[in-house]
Specification:
- The protein is mostly beta strands.
- The protein has one domain (2-106): Barwin-like endoglucanases, CATH 2.40.40.
- It contains two helices and eight strands, in the order E-E-E-H-E-E-E-E-H-E.
- The protein has helices at residues 30-35, 95-100, and strands at residues 2-14, 17-19, 25-29, 43-48, 54-62, 69-72, 84-94, 104-106.
- Strands 2-6-3-5-4-7-1-8 form an eight-stranded mixed β-sheet.
- A hairpin with a 5-residue loop joins strand 4 and strand 5 (54-62).
- The longest helix has 6 residues, at 30-35.
Amino acid sequence: MYVHVVKSKIHRVKVTGADLNYIGSITIDEDLMDAANIIEGEKVQVVNNTNGERLETYAIPGPRKSGEITLNGAAARKVAAGDVLILMTYAMLELEEAKQFKPALVFPNEENNLLT
């Protein structure tokens, strides 16, 4: 049997931009992606703590040490600069493996989205 488990979580980052005219995705500072074990193109669940919106998109790397969190394409309508988000990815693991698995949990600086 397989179960879905949280693989990665970036907790409480602020939206730095929303680009309606860009091809859909979420741009995430590559340092945050590395810390959370998120790869380019991976599906990401976006939970907006500010307005309650939830959506799924895919990750693209942003410049390192930029703190960038930009929602692109239609997802840009679901956020505003300064909104606080939680970003999560999931994996399917066999039950016994899932019992031992530990997700990558990242808690960046809430003011600038950088790792401390």
